[in-house]
Amino acid sequence: MHWFDLSHTLRYKIRQLAKSKREAYINLHLGYENKNNKASNMHKTQQEAVYNELKDAILRGKFEPGNSVTLRGIAEMLGCSLMPVRESLRRLTAEGALELLANRRIAVPTMSAEKLQEIYYTRTCLESYAAERAMSRIDEQGLRELTEINRLHNEAIANQDVENYIYLNFEFHRKLYSYSDLNVITVMIEGLWLRIAPFMRMISDRFAEQGEITESDDKHIEILEAIHKQNSTRLKHLIQDDILDGVRIQQEMMGWPVSD
Amino acid sequence: MHWFDLSHTLRYKIRQLAKSKREAYINLHLGYENKNNKASNMHKTQQEAVYNELKDAILRGKFEPGNSVTLRGIAEMLGCSLMPVRESLRRLTAEGALELLANRRIAVPTMSAEKLQEIYYTRTCLESYAAERAMSRIDEQGLRELTEINRLHNEAIANQDVENYIYLNFEFHRKLYSYSDLNVITVMIEGLWLRIAPFMRMISDRFAEQGEITESDDKHIEILEAIHKQNSTRLKHLIQDDILDGVRIQQEMMGWPVSD
DNA sequence: AATTTTGATTTGTGATCACAATAATGGTTT
DNA sequence: AAACCATTATTGTGATCACAAATCAAAATT
Fold first, then answer.
1. Is residue A3 part of a domain?
2. Minimal Cα–Cα distance from A133 to chain B, Å?
3. Which residues of A are less than 8 Å from B187 in CB distance?
């Protein structure tokens, strides 16, 4: 099971484990290991650490749309008290990654045809602009990093590794946009990713079940080529196509009206 | 003083007042009276009430860019404990309305030429789309409501009432976009407003000091006309111009490079 | 067997206390 | 008078408890 949701018995086991490390700063064991102790992993507050862990988990599709998320459940998994979780979930809810239901319970939002359309439109506007700005600012080092991320991305496809397939796709775009020097817009873009990631994971899983995850053509390579040639109009079209292709697959899978 | 910031002695007075009503649900006295007891004012939780009050105050420009905001300060003003304030400020921070400084203090963000550009671009994309969608869905009742808001807006200009001048401008656009049926995008738009409102208020105040607040031509009337004629291309241009005009004034006032 | 009711559990929210880190203050020294 | 230091006050964060509302489960009723 990849869902960020543990059975009751398993949750109890983790609680026992967590109790022993209760005094430690924070011990986060969410089932995957990206414990590269970079400077970015230095968190001043627990809530920041919890937020980053949960954000990562969401972008990897570990949260199933419609599932409910509880403060104590997350707190037990992460071995911390309620407070850091409370503040993280409040933030994630404000960003649209989670949802407060009428019964004041917290849940992973479900997708609708209308919401998908809105997210698609906004992503197209913001991401094509961010890409264009990044193109004129990126250096050789950045292009090499993008190439490496894309290699790992293709590796994930070859291994039918859905989780990393989704995550590394985001990672490619995030790295690209990081060169845009657009602080406000990149935050908004990542907020949109948080909204669609659980849905994307669901679609990809269904796709993987009934066939194979495959990329018709390596869009990322074409993007890198356009950047290398400094062809901004082509780059914008490629970004728009990249987003549109993904949305079309999702719409077809759900039987929703297909864009354009 | 219109700033959402009280002197120490005044804050003490309020604390005394608040103590007497400590047991009451919540008593919010932020200096202005919009106590229309509509259903929208029925809040299930205190943090929701606090959030709505603070959001309103921000959109009215009661927060000065650069000023720091403290949990206990707000809690005393609103006569509630720290918890509802903590959660509200966390949410507002996530939405970009407030900022966590490196010294883990909370402050009203200051504007920069770059941030203004980003916000301007995003507003143009999202608001013109929302307006276009609203045009095909609005009814006679909606047009009447917009006309009334615009009348109050012009009244505020005539009275040199900067606070309501800013707020009613937002109110006009919010009412218009409410007919777009775009849930995700309208939330993002209001998030952008929260980011610029304190800055807009600062600019408008300077404008009011050295001259008069005046509208060169009533853009809102033209917008209503375009909607009445169902001319979507003209409507989109009018929205874009409306946003651009405001940004240009701000850029000129700050001596920043002017858009387009 | 289907529905209702009752009781126990789980949930988010609010309140309060403790604490480390930062800021502010006042006094001392150079 | 200006720079330095020590003390005090304030700040956000974390932990814990209490509680009402919602949920679930099982028993009682029809």
1. no
2. 11
3. 96
User: Any idea what the Cα angle at residue B108 is, between residues B102 and B112, rounded to 5°?
Assistant: 85
Report the pLDDT value the prediction gives residue B171, as an integer from 0 to 100.
Answer: 97
CA gap A125, A139 in Å, rounded: 24
Chain D positions with any atom < 7 A from a protein CB: 10-17, 21-23
Whose C1' is closest to the CA of A106: which nucleotide? C12
Q: Which of B215, B108, B231 is nearest to B172 (CA)?
A: B215
Q: Give residue B196's pLDDT.
A: 98
For chain A, which ranges sit under pLDDT 50?
Answer: 1-40
Q: How far apart, in Å, are the Cα atoms of A204 and each of A127, A159, A240, A254, B259?
A: 22, 14, 20, 12, 42
Measured between alpha carbons, how far is A203 from A64 in angstroms, rounded to an integer? 11
CATH number at B90 reads 1.10.10.10
Boundary of a domain, candidates B48, B72, B107: B107
pLDDT given at position A205 = 92
Say if the Cβ atoms of A188 and B184 lie within 8 Å.
no
* Whether residue B176 sits in one domain with residue B95: no
Determine whether the distance from the CB of A71 to the nearest atom of strand C is below 7 Å: yes
Out of A87, A182, A183, closest to residue B90 by CB = A87
**Structural domain harbouring B135:** 113-254
Residues in chain B with pLDDT < 70? Answer: 1-42, 211, 216
B16 and B99 share one domain: yes
Domain shared by B194 and B117, yes or no = yes
Amino acid B3: pLDDT: 47
Is residue A187 within 8 angstroms of chain B, CB to CB? yes
Q: What is the pLDDT of residue B9?
A: 34
Its ipTM equals 0.87
Give the phi and the psi of residue A106 in degrees, each rounded to 5: -105, 135
Phi and psi (nearest 5°) for A215? -105, 120
Answer yes or no: do B147 and B216 share one domain.
Answer: yes
In angstroms, the Cα distances linking A151 to A61, A138, A145, A147, B40 are 21, 19, 10, 6, 52
The CATH number covering residue A167 comes to 1.20.120.530
The pair of three-digit structure tokens given for residue A194, joined into one six-digit string: 């948080």
Q: Tally the domains of chain A.
A: 2
Q: Give SS3 for B194.
A: helix
